[in-house]
Amino acid sequence: MTERTVYLDNSATTPLSEAARAAMLAAMDSYGNPSSLHTLGQQSEQLVRHAREQLLGCLGVRPRQGTLVFTSCGTEATALALFGTAYAKARRDATRILTTDSEHPATARALDALEKNGFEIVRIPTVGGVLDTDALCAALDRRIFLASFMLVNNETGALYRLKEAFSLIKRAYPDAITHCDAVQGFMRVRFTPQSLGADMISLSAHKIHAPKGVGALYIDGELLKRKKIVPYLVGGGQESGMRSGTENVIGISAFGAAAEDMNCRREQTEQKLSALYEYASKGLEKLELTVNRPREAHVSHIINFTLPDIKSETMLHYLSADGIYVSSGSACSSHSGAPSSTLMAFGLTPHMADCSLRISFSEYNTAADIDALCKSLRNGLEGLVRIKR
Ligand code: PLP
Fold first, then answer.
1. Looking at residue 299, what DSSP letter applies?
2. What percent of the chain has pLDDT over 90?
3. Which residues have a Cβ under 8 Å from the Cβ of 278 and sit 6 or more positions away?
């Protein structure tokens, strides 16, 4: 076993930033309940309010344009968006929901549940990491009331052209509600709710160097005012009545601080990550590995590649023993054992999907990490057993 840690699994989760750690430590002393009316409660409420302002600032939201509802994770934010709008829908014939065929399970499984309850789910293809706008146009129909598309694919790094997709939908059906799972895009890609055309946006703290156990859903002000979304977690009426339950003050404080910290170093980080992307792609190609680069736009912090007839899990454990941490797809679906449906939607065969690994960077990675990965991969490629096609 090795002592080193080369962490290349930042799409699964990220290490805490110093800013997040400091905010958590400071918030630990504010034990008042943010809903309590006394001074201790107000102190905690002020921490939550400050984090909300920091995050809305990073999202480029204008005052009163919309609000941010804190949840326990990105998955819960998406569940609120999808179930909340499905339960609220007023028109009986509003039954169709558009999505992609490569969503994270947080969206895909929630929509499967709605499908079982009579909704019609249309899954738009994303071959090569490109949202098929012809298929989207063909699916446009007056029964549409909701569209839920991710911004950045967590397995391939594809950056979907949401502005175009959402405006096609809104132009045809202005009342349709648009939701974006931006869990992998927040603070990595520059966007605002307007630039995406999204009425709701899901975020997750632990992907941006804050702790696990916090997420948020941005909700457009008009949507709230017109009661186009209803809460499914009811109780004390916290979070504008949209998500009852005492807020995770410590985690929320860290979420705001981590976002603001990343925002300060944005340009520098973007340059660093795009240099790392090119360096890693070249290194992998030198080893004659197939880099599954999206055909059009992609982010710089996620690379998926295919090994020649070596099961991804075999290589993953080999690298892990060498102190190098990567992923064989989404951390959330890696227990299912089935080849990734997202990679097959991308265009990989089941065999290729079974032999594919994902590396994902953060600003804490360096070229030396890529060198260590490539060296270990080379040894693995020489020594590991090949599987039959
Ligand atoms: N959506 C995407 C694209 C993700 O990558 C993830 C987590 O990997 C989630 C949603 C779920 O976020 P959380 O882990 O906060 O529930």
1. -
2. 92
3. none
What is the atom index within ligand 1 of the atom nearest the CA of 73? 15
pLDDT at 2 over 70: no
Residue 305 above 80 pLDDT?
Answer: yes
The pLDDT, as a whole number, for residue 332 is 45
Catalytic residue among 58, 180, 264, 332: 332
> Do 388 and 23 meet the contact criterion of CB atoms below 8 Å apart?
no
Our answer on whether the CB atom of 215 is closer than 6 Å to any ligand 1 atom is yes
Measured in Å, residue 215 CA sits from the centre of ligand 1 at 9
Looking at residue 186, the DSSP 8-state letter turns out to be B
Pocket probe for ligand 1: among 126, 153, 154, the residue whose CB has the most ligand atoms within 8 Å is 154
Ligand 1 near 210 CB (within 6 A): no
For the segment 192-231, what is each residue's pLDDT rounded down to a tens digit? 999 999 999 999 999 999 999 999 999 999 999 999 999 9
Pocket of ligand 1 contains residue 74 by CB under 6 Å: yes
Angle at 294 between CA 293 and CA 300, to 5 degrees: 70
Whether the CB of 104 sits within 6 Å of ligand 1? yes
Residues 6+ apart with CB under 8 A from 78: 104, 106, 107, 110, 148, 179, 181, 202, 217
Q: How far is the CA of 75 from the centre of ligand 1 (A)?
A: 6
CA distance 351 to 329: 14
AA letter at 220:
D
Q: How many CB atoms lie within 10 A of CB 286?
A: 10
**38: buried, middle or exposed (CB in 10 Å: 19+, 13-18, 0-12)?**
exposed
Residue 204 has φ and ψ, to the nearest 5°, of: -140, 135
Q: Which residues pair with 150 in a beta bridge?
A: 181
Query: In the prediction, which pLDDT does 389 show?
Result: 67
| Residue 244 in this model has a pLDDT that exceeds 60 | yes
User: What mean pLDDT value characterizes the chain?
Assistant: 95
State if residue 75 touches ligand 1 by the CB under 6 angstroms criterion.
yes
332 a catalytic residue: yes
Q: Kindly give the number of the ligand 1 atom that is closest to the alpha carbon of 212.
A: 15
- Contact 215/192 with Cβ under 8 angstroms? no
